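Exercise 7b. Backbone tokens:
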């Protein structure tokens, strides 16, 4: 559910550029006694004993999550025991004492271990351990790329700012770029030239971070590809797996990339960024899903485009008037506008904010993806919003509009007509498989452009929220609705938090009730009820502890339970 705006928007990242070294949001949690003790000792052990000119910072997050979910397709209970551990290290002012406005240097890194001890947990007997070990049961339960405890280096770079009298800035190492083209991560170098003429030029290059490579994750790759290392499984154990072993699972390889950007560096109320990025695929990819009669799989090798995109975003904001923003991206590989958005916000007096937004998005994929061969049509969302500060403690916000889904052809009429052409009842779909290539009449019907005209399905969207806040207490009620011919989802949740003893302790709770229906699968409709109870303790600025109990229930999966705990530690001068 989309977050509703407050009276005045919180400070937000600009429309582009490299972002500060902060961890990405993560839905991970809980902690065991030994894990907690270890996490508490790590920063203490790393803290320096003597004073130094450079400033340092050590951050640690430890989470353990335990939950159980019943499968909606049977009686199988899926149990999970997850451990999240991050460790961040940063050293600032490496140059020592410096004059105001002079060059400064820093180094920072963050590691993440995201272990799931529930992997293989439901396999017994001869299949035990088979999800991650190809040698078990002939690989019948093996899942390529699945790991029990993946470790990735989130970022690690050396940075210089305001070098050469303020003209030059740089980063070297693993880093993020965030702009209208989206979040992206690479290993390499970035250089930024800032001129006194309200313009800065940015250029970067290196290797895109990809899953299957050491200390890497796949979350920043283009969608549409299942990619990773083929080592450790397949017909020949002495060599990396061949393309014939899981042909849908592409072998990970290096991905050279570069990008440039032209960005404003002038008045704070206006900002714009023009950015271009290109990434290449190397190595081998499968160009045909099935083996030929000789058992071979057709492949493609060599350098080829992975993504090739251009984007521009700009925003203007005046605290006493309002703001306007917009952005657009173009995909050169698919030769189409991949997305655009626009928004207008008006501050109508000191207590009311009004706004309107439009968002257009076409799914696009890595150039090696099979999904490029299928039609993919745009999704357009148009919304309006309003926020009112009734008093200093009470505010209301509403958000609503429509979302339009475009598809090629009408699925219901198309299928019914195919049944009729085949000499069957018009409702034969679901009981009969029709292959257009098996009949000339069916093939002609499928290829006729008159039968593939664009159709639009429309959903109505609405959110409403009210909030009461004081220095020690907060209560929030939120409701949402999404409905259309394809189904409906509606519900609400009520949450509250009370902070005690100088905000050192916190007690929280949330109760929710949601209902959904799917006309295509009426047996999947259900009403879900859930609640969460939580407590927190913050002994000081260096640490905070949280613990939550969650219980959800509906007729599809019965009872679901989760215990979540989180420990954050920070050591700094």
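Sequence design result:
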């Amino acid at each position: 559910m989309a977050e509703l705006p407050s009276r005045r928007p919180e400070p937000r990242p600009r429309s582009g550029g490299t972002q500060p070294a902060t961890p990405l949001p993560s839905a991970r949690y809980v902690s065991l006694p030994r894990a907690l003790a270890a996490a508490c000792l790590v920063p203490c052990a790393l803290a320096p004993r003597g004073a130094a000119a450079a400033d340092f910072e050590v951050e640690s997050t430890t989470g353990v999550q335990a939950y159980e979910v019943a499968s909606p397709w049977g009686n199988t209970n899926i149990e999970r025991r997850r451990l999240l551990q991050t460790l961040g290290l940063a050293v600032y002012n490496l140059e020592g004492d410096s004059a105001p406005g002079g060059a400064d240097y820093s180094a920072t890194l963050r590691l993440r271990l995201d272990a799931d001890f529930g992997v293989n947990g439901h396999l017994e007997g001869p299949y035990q351990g088979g999800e991650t070990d190809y040698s078990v049961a002939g690989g019948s339960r093996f899942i390529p790329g699945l790991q029990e405890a993946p470790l990735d280096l989130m970022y690690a770079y050396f940075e210089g700012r305001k070098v050469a009298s303020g003209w030059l800035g740089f980063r070297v190492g693993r880093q993020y770029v965030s702009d209208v083209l989206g979040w992206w991560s690479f290993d390499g170098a970035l250089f930024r030239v800032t001129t006194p003429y309200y313009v800065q030029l940015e250029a970067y290059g290196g290797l895109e971070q990809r899953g299957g490579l050491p200390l890497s994750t796949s979350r920043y790759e283009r969608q549409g590809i299942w990619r990773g290392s083929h080592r450790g499984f397949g017909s020949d154990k002495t060599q990396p797996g061949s393309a014939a072993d899981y042909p849908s699972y592409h072998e990970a390889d290096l991905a050279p990339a570069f990008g440039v950007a032209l960005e404003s560096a002038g008045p704070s109320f206006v900002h714009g960024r023009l950015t271009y990025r290109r990434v290449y695929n190397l190595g081998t990819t499968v160009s045909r899903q099935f083996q030929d009669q000789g058992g071979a799989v057709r492949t493609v090798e060599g350098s080829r485009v992975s993504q090739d995109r251009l984007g521009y975003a700009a925003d203007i904001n005046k605290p006493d008037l309002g703001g306007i923003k917009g952005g657009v991206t173009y995909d050169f590989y698919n030769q189409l506008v991949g997305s655009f958005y626009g928004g207008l916000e008006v501050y109508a007096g000191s207590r009311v904010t009004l706004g309107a937004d439009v968002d257009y998005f076409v799914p696009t994929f890595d150039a090696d993806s099979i999904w490029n061969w299928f039609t993919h049509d745009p999704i357009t969302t148009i919304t309006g919003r309003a926020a009112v500060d009734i008093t200093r403690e009470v505010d209301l916000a509403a958000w609503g509009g429509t979302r339009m889904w475009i598809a090629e052809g009408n699925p219901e009429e198309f299928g019914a007509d195919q049944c009729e052409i085949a000499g069957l009842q018009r409702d034969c779909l679901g009981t009969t498989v029709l292959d257009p290539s098996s009949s000339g009449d069916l093939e002609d019907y499928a290829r006729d452009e008159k039968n593939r005209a664009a159709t639009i399905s429309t959903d109505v969207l609405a959110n409403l929220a009210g909030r009461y806040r004081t220095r020690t207490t907060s209560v929030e009620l939120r409701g949402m609705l999404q409905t259309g011919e394809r189904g409906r989802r509606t519900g609400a949740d009520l949450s509250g938090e009370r902070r005690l003893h100088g905000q050192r302790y916190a007690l929280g709770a949330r109760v929710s009730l949601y209902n959904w229906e799917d006309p295509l699968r009426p047996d999947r409709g259900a009403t879900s009820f859930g609640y969460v109870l939580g407590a927190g303790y913050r002994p000081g600025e260096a640490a905070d502890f949280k613990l939550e109990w969650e219980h959800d229930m509906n007729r599809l999966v019965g009872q679901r339970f989760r215990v979540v705990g989180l420990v954050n530690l920070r050591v700094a001068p």
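Instructor comment: The helical segments are 33-46, 411-421, 440-447. The two ends are 39 Å apart (CA to CA).
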